[in-house]
Specification:
The complex is a heterodimer. In chain A, about 65% of the residues lie in helices and about 0% in strands. Chain A is an all-alpha fold. In chain A, strand 2 and strand 3 (about 210) form a beta hairpin. By secondary structure, chain B is an alpha/beta fold. The chains are: A mainly alpha, B alpha/beta.
Chain lengths: ~375, ~280
């Protein structure tokens, strides 16, 4: 498929019109097609709902506590948003590709624990520990994808299995090795200070933004570029929208989906490594339940649960809303338990809005 | 693979058919799905394959498009004996099949659908990217040739009508160098007007020099565009005639098993005649 019939711009039209019958009467500009206004064009973006919601939520919490939109406040909620947003972008790509990964949350814990144990108990250099951890994460993602593609079972069930396996391993192995339910003193490992600077540090003192915010922006930008401008991006939309149709036109469906599962695991592991390096320790229960926050962020950002539609920026906006809610509720002096209620409500609203959009986009025909 | 079609519009009977089967049979276990079928299509010609449900039309298409392998007989592409191991191989030889379920993704935009799997790129290395503007421009031009005026290339395919979606599939197949276009019941799910529109695309593809195999169970749709009519019944070839040799009524009769239909007609007439007399 790497040979394009006409790869250069301005290539001549591909077919010669030999003896074409008089062109069929084309209505002079189909009168049924209304002109598309720039406004309608903007409203068609998947992330527009999340953007509006983020603005409303920001203003709401700002009225509760004006610190919320000052730099110190922003540093607070972007911290939460970034550690949700980085994996949420990968989860969004996977969802656009038509699959789920419930093991993404617990993967952050597994990665932090593995790196921590290799660094503290085995005495490895932290960088080597990171490399080995990423390889392991890639293997888990590959297994997820391979099992889903080979068995044709819903990814929901397969990754639910991986989720519990990883959770069991996290607790069991950690307890067996450290006699505790956590790994600590990661900061004593060689190479910690350089790795901590890159993955777990701060910038812009005195406000102390977390370095994860920069990673978050970078991951979002890469995700957006991939979806909008690369061939793989087009394939992701294709396999999620209609895998059979995509296969019929030559898209390597299996490779695309397995690649998406691996990306999700790798990005989740990266997030876990960042969290572990920042705190210099990891709990064995780290990340359990976070997968739902990633999925909520992706759905609030416009991803359809059925695949084929969504955006990376949307997932990041979804993570922003979650981050703002978590910190905003604290800033407002309310009980933080309310944040779950908030999450549930915003998820339901997002699903209803997305459902409506999907019906319009599919034209309710066929 | 060149997308140029250098064939002139008019076919000659002496020319080698682009795609031909000779004495092909296909068995599924002890079921004879196809028995001794010989059909061909030349450039600039529409061969209609007609038959009622269960006649073997689907099996026939699947052999031509590389989904199934035939058990007996020959499959010739440009006169050369060939076996397809996959639909991809058939496609590489310029045989494009537009299946009933339409190979388009409803939620994706028209241009993304048009180039799905064969996206044009520019730039190199990490900056290698899909040439969106060129892709949109090309897609709009190609659909214009089919008589469709696309205002907004970003419009999701799902918002197009059934006929327009067929047109996108056909235009894509033509653009990516198909020499033979196999259309599986393209009009079966469409209304009268939409069917007319699709038939016009079929005629246009033919005029652009493609060989078209048009599978249908509707003789009214097949007759206006067809040059040759092949009738299948229960896996056998029961009729093969050129346009001048058969009238529309004869075609309808042949398709439904001729004599059977006549007997049925008489029976219905008798019932209708008897009804007022007895009442």
């Amino acid at each position: 498929m790497d040979k394009q019939p006409m790869a250069s711009s301005g290539g001549a039209p591909a077919t010669t019109s030999t003896g074409v019958a008089p062109p069929p009467p084309t209505p002079a500009g189909d009168e049924r097609l209304a002109q598309i206004s720039p406004m309608a064009r903007i409203l068609r973006r998947p992330e527009i709902g999340a953007l509006l919601a983020a603005i409303v939520v920001a203003i709401f919490f700002w009225t509760q506590n004006s610190l919320f939109l000052k730099l110190d406040g922003i540093a607070n909620w972007t911290d939460v948003a970034s550690t949700i947003g980085i994996p949420a972008v990968a989860v969004a790509l996977l969802m656009i590709g038509g699959e789920f990964d419930l093991s993404a949350g617990v993967m952050t814990g597994s990665a932090g624990l593995m790196m921590g144990i290799l660094a503290t108990e085995v005495g490895m250099n932290i960088w080597l520990a990171i490399v080995l951890t990423m390889i392991a994460a890639g293997a888990v993602g590959f297994l997820n994808g391979y099992m889903v593609m080979k068995t044709k079972l819903p990814s929901f069930i397969v990754t639910l299995g991986t989720f519990f396996i990883l959770q069991g391993v996290n607790l069991g192995v950690t307890k067996a090795i450290t006699n505790q339910v956590s790994v600590s003193n990661i900061d004593l490992a060689s190479g910690y200070s350089s790795a901590q600077k890159i993955f777990g540090g701060n910038f812009w003192s005195p406000h102390d933004f977390q370095i994860t915010v920069l990673w978050w922006i970078a991951v979002t930008a890469i995700g957006t570029w991939v979806l909008a401008r690369t061939r793989v991006g087009n394939w992701i939309f294709g396999v999620g929208g209609d895998a059979n149709a995509a296969r019929n036109v030559g898209v390597p469906v299996m490779q695309v989906k397995i690649g998406l599962f691996m990306t999700t695991s790798l990005v989740a592991a990266l997030t876990g490594i960042m969290i572990a390096l920042r705190l210099a320790s990891t709990q064995a229960g780290q990340g359990v339940g976070d997968e739902f926050q990633y999925i909520i962020a992706a759905v609030v950002g416009g991803c359809l649960l059925t695949g084929g539609y969504g955006s990376a920026v949307g997932a990041s906006l979804g993570a922003t809303i979650i981050g703002m809610a978590f910190i905003g509720i604290q800033f407002s002096g309310w009980n933080t338990d309310w944040r779950f209620l908030f999450l549930g409500v915003i998820l339901l609203v997002a699903v209803l809005v997305n459902n409506y959009i999907r019906k319009r986009a599919e034209g309710a025909r066929r | 693979m060149s997308t140029e079609t250098n064939q002139t519009a008019q076919q000659g009977d002496g020319k080698t058919p682009l795609l031909e089967v000779r004495h092909v049979s296909k068995y599924f276990g002890n079921v004879v799905a196809l028995n001794d079928i010989s059909v061909g299509v030349s450039a600039g010609e529409v061969t209609c394959v007609l038959g009622d449900n269960g006649a073997g039309k689907s099996t026939f298409i699947k052999i031509l498009s590389g989904v199934h392998r035939h058990d007996e007989g020959e499959l010739l592409v440009d006169g050369e004996d060939t076996h397809f191991n996959s639909p991809r191989e058939a496609k590489e030889r310029g045989i494009a099949t537009v299946f009933q379920d339409l190979a388009t993704v409803p939620l994706m935009s028209i241009w993304r659908n048009f180039f799905l799997g064969s996206e044009p790129t520019k730039g190199a290395g990490p900056l290698r990217r899909v040439d969106v503007r060129w892709a949109q421009h090309t897609m709009v031009g190609e659909l214009k040739k089919m008589g469709i005026d696309v205002r907004d290339p970003d419009q999701p395919v799902g918002t197009l009508s059934g006929g327009e979606r067929q047109a996108v599939s056909i235009a894509r197949a033509v653009y990516f160098g198909a020499k033979v276009l196999i259309l599986d019941e393209p009009t079966s799910a469409l209304g009268v007007k939409q069917s007319g529109v699709v038939l016009r695309y079929v005629a246009q593809a033919r005029d652009r020099g493609l060989g078209v195999i048009f599978i249908s169970h509707n003789p009214h749709h097949a007759y206006p565009v067809g040059d040759r009519f092949v009738i299948l019944n229960r896996g056998r070839l029961v009729g093969d005639s050129r346009k001048g040799e058969i009238s529309r009524d004869e075609l309808i009769k042949a398709m439904s098993g001729g004599a059977e239909l006549e007997a049925l007609e008489h029976e219905i007439e008798r019932v209708l005649d008897d009804a007022p007399a007895s009442g």
